[in-house]
Amino acid sequence: MYKGDTLYKCSEERIKETLSGLKQHKDGRKYIMSRLEALGCRSEYDDLGNVYVTLPGSSPDSKSIVLSCPDSSDNAGVCTAVEIIETLTAEEIPHTHALTVLLWNDEPSEDEWELVPAMGALCLEYLPEEIRGDYKDIKPKKSAKGSKQNRLNTHDFRFMFEVHTAAVPDGIAVADIVTASVGRPEFRFNEKLTKLTEDSAAVCGVSAEKLHYSPDRDTWIAANMLPTAVILVSPDDAGKYADAATVLLNAVLQADKS
Asked: What is the pTM of this model?
């Protein structure tokens, strides 16, 4: 799969810089947006207040690949996504698909809602019928400057790669979430993306455990919307974050060819 390909390595030092910036800035989301916009990304809001920060690809008609967990308070997901964009731009790595860092609307307010119901509201029309009713009456906070057409969807987005923090014995693992889409053949690519990510870890020389993973409800919901691969990393470990970013970057570049 990787024969003749260049393997790219992400920077632990840049990830430390991102972590430091997140701690120093009161509004972490605005900090990440400014970092990415300085690299040539554009930002758009949906009508739920989520932000989609996108680095264009070489094909304007190509679907986007999502690079992070929608939970912007998860440092691992955000830092690895930012580092991938940093590496792509610093090394001028060509890619066909646009690449999107999705920053969840987690601004505190009186009507703050938890991640899982929020994800259910976002992905409602893509959920299996048996659980769709659990989320149909949720009234999420809306953003006046956002548009419903910018929401995560299957028309404009193709794959999702997520990084989450977890208590992983060896520091990093590739999570098998194939069971998230049992009986839904249109999402058979969950299994293919998981295998592609495993292969990337092996080729990059990153030791990654394979876990049969019972995903949190938000990840399960996302995987029923877009084909999804998940990497789990130990919390607050910049070295492991860099390993995860390296695995993810090279997996994304392989997915970009499909």
From this structure: 0.89
